[in-house]
Amino acid sequence: xxxxxxxxxxxxxxxxxxxxxxxxxxxxxxxxxxxxxxxxxxxxxxxxxxxxxxxxxxxxxxxxxxxxxxxxxxxxxxxxxxxxxxxxxxxxxxxxxxxxxxxxxxxxxxxxxxxxxxxxxxxxxxxxxxxxxxxxxxxxxxxxxxxxxxxxxxxxxxxxxxxxxxxxxxxxxxxxxxxxxxxxxxxxxxxxxxxxxxxxxxxxxxxxxxxxxxxxxxxxxxxxxxxxxxxxxxxxxxxxxxxxxxxxxxxxxxxxxxxxxxx
Length: 263
Fold this sequence. Notes:
This protein is an alpha/beta fold. The chain has one domain: Rossmann fold (3-Layer(aba) Sandwich). It is 43% helix and 17% strand. The protein has eleven helices and nine strands. The strands form two sheets. A six-stranded mixed β-sheet has the order 5-6-7-3-8-9. A hairpin with a 2-residue loop joins strand 8 and strand 9. Helix 7 runs parallel beside helix 8. It is globular and about 65 Å long. The termini are far apart.
């Protein structure tokens, strides 16, 4: 059973952006029939825009802790009056993961740490490292937040390990979790780890995952609902019916057929 049972976007116009993108034009009575739903489609079809609009409506926290007034949510703000939701059980609690937020967050933490390190460099010969670390934490809440929530600097992990670490810390209780192209941060092995993590979470918690992705591996999650968006509509499909699956399978079965003209 899912908390959110259906979603529709019903604007009165079809242009300009974001009203003209397929996912906005065709997001009508999209039913969430299972705890895991995938929204897929080519670049530019509007998968991320739909997730951003839903996250905006639910005011789900996201990576950098900022609200939804920052640059990057203009399309979601324009669509918000036209978003219609139906609930099985209303529960606007969860988290919104965007791969771009993750990268921006790590980069900003790294820049802040480097700047403070330079400012305090003259103290390193005279002051113990743990005191300098406390001074950094006091000077920058973001650095303190990273250590408090994750136990150590995320820069100590690989990109994919850090992404999974954040998920493991943020997805501990029941709620609605929106994941926008998580495969951007994950190797194929780590994508499998994410599948098992979601499975384990759902075995102990009543949660709902809505995921925009290009990854056939993630789409293979057992029992998931898949909606494919293209210029002609937005419809429920099976894994094997998706273009992502057929192109990937065809390529892996015979890469030479695709690459022979590059020689």
